[in-house]
């Protein structure tokens, strides 16, 4: 649900022009195991990682724990289920196109038929909702911790309806979780079933998966991985309250079953050829490389193009992509990732499959004294950004929390510099002036501590 696709695309684009020879080789499993082992040994990730060829799994690595409760730790297994975040949207889009194939919906039907109270409802189409061009509000990313608490369906709809649209329908593309929440409710209205029941009937029963389920409350399933972050130890995260994001980001799955799903979708087992063509209709020129289709995204890797989706909640990161030309697919699901990038994991898996070079990460730690950290603590404000940042500590780990967001740990690069690799954040402190510089996306933002 967190909009992390742009980071993935940007990094993979950087590999696009280096070579045209990306024939699959036998995977060097020892090196890829070493890659993941280094991440595990440095408390960077817990999760499950799969590579497949023509739907057949040829590499699978599961790391970390599904549950951590004080001294009790339950190791994750191949059966552990993870929240897949926005990959859920591909399932939602698939069911919408099934209803289109059955002549029960069409891409040009207006939102006003189902939710006339929404702004611009008489001009927003099903197509606009699918490709994020509706202009409607995002009830997840625009509302911070509000989404972590239970809300009724009426409250969720009201949250979307009362926000002025960002633009006219079809004018731009802006990621909208709210649009997919409406698509999920439309599925329920048209089928007369709950989203979870429709998912089971229309997808999971057809492809024979057992782990893919929707409509469950947080941490209610026996095999469900709980969400964590590492702050000197793996600590629990208060995640999005998943009934708030049915059809948007609530599905549980293993990566193995995501492989089954993406291969069923790309091979024509779930929607018609015409509908699948529309799902991967990426408008715009190749130069612009618009990544957004209707329920699918695309990413480049050398001369190849992969289609699929990724997902992020407050406690999970997931990825699911396939190359329809050569049959390669990958999926991974996590319940803990700290100071490491989803992009680097994706690239390592792709490079391993296509026998391209990649490095085993090296993590350098800087040991700081308690007084070194204490001098940096406080609330920082900026004239450059309307975003306050609170600097705290958890044990010997410095923590940062922006307004309306969850706190995240920082790695010490030096006594005065701290980074968060996952979010491309670097914080530089001036101890004497009690100031801080936030560096992100190549831009600098000046902060001063509140007195």
From TrEMBL:
<dbReference type="InterPro" id="IPR012338">
    <property type="entry name" value="Beta-lactam/transpept-like"/>
</dbReference>
<dbReference type="Pfam" id="PF00144">
    <property type="entry name" value="Beta-lactamase"/>
</dbReference>
<feature type="signal peptide">
    <location>
        <begin position="1"/>
        <end position="24"/>
    </location>
</feature>
<dbReference type="InterPro" id="IPR050491">
    <property type="entry name" value="AmpC-like"/>
</dbReference>
<dbReference type="InterPro" id="IPR001466">
    <property type="entry name" value="Beta-lactam-related"/>
</dbReference>
<protein>
    <submittedName>
        <fullName>Beta-lactamase family protein</fullName>
    </submittedName>
</protein>
<keyword id="KW-0732">Signal</keyword>
<feature type="domain" description="Beta-lactamase-related">
    <location>
        <begin position="47"/>
        <end position="346"/>
    </location>
</feature>
């Amino acid at each position: 649900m967190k909009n992390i696709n742009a980071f993935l695309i940007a990094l993979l684009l950087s590999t696009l022009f280096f070579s045209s020879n990306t024939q699959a080789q036998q995977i060097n499993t020892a090196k890829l195991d070493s890659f993941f082992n280094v991440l595990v040994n440095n408390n960077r990730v817990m999760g499950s990682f799969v590579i497949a060829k023509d739907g057949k799994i040829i590499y699978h690595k599961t790391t970390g724990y599904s549950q951590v409760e004080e001294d009790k730790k339950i190791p994750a297994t191949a059966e552990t289920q993870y929240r897949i975040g926005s990959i859920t949207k591909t399932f939602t889009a698939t069911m919408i196109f099934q209803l289109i194939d059955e002549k029960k919906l069409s891409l040009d039907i207006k939102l006003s038929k189902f939710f006339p109270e929404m702004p611009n409802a008489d001009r927003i189409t099903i197509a606009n909702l699918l490709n994020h061009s509706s202009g409607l509000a995002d009830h997840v990313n625009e509302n911070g911790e509000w989404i972590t608490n239970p809300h009724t369906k009426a409250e969720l709809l009201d949250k979307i309806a009362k926000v002025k649209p960002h633009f006219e329908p079809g004018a731009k593309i802006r990621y909208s979780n709210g649009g997919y929440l409406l698509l999920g409710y439309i599925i329920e209205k048209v089928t007369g079933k709950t989203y979870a029941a429709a998912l089971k009937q229309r997808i999971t029963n057809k492809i024979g998966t057992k782990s893919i389920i929707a409509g469950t409350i947080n941490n209610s399933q026996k095999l469900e991985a709980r969400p964590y972050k590492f702050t000197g130890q793996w600590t629990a995260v208060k995640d999005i309250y998943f009934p708030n994001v049915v059809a948007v980001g609530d599905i549980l799955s293993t990566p193995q079953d995501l492989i089954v799903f993406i291969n069923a979708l790309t091979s024509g087992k779930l929607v018609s050829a015409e509908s699948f063509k529309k799902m991967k209709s990426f408008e715009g020129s190749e130069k612009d490389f618009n990544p957004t289709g209707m329920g699918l995204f695309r990413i480049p890797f050398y001369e190849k193009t992969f289609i699929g989706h990724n997902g992020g909640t407050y406690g999970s990161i997931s990825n699911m992509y396939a190359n329809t030309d050569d049959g390669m697919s990958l999926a991974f699901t996590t319940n803990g990732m700290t100071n490491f990038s989803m992009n680097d994991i994706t690239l390592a898996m792709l490079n391993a499959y296509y026998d391209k070079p990649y490095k085993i990460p090296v993590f350098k730690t800087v040991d700081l004294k308690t007084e070194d950290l204490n001098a940096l603590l406080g609330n920082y404000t900026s004239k450059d950004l309307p975003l306050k940042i609170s600097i705290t500590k958890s044990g010997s780990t410095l923590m940062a929390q922006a307004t309306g967001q969850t706190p995240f740990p920082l790695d010490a690069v030096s006594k005065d510099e701290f980074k968060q690799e996952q979010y491309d954040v670097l914080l530089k402190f001036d101890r004497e002036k009690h100031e801080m510089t936030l560096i992100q996306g190549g831009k600098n933002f000046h902060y001063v501590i509140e007195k």
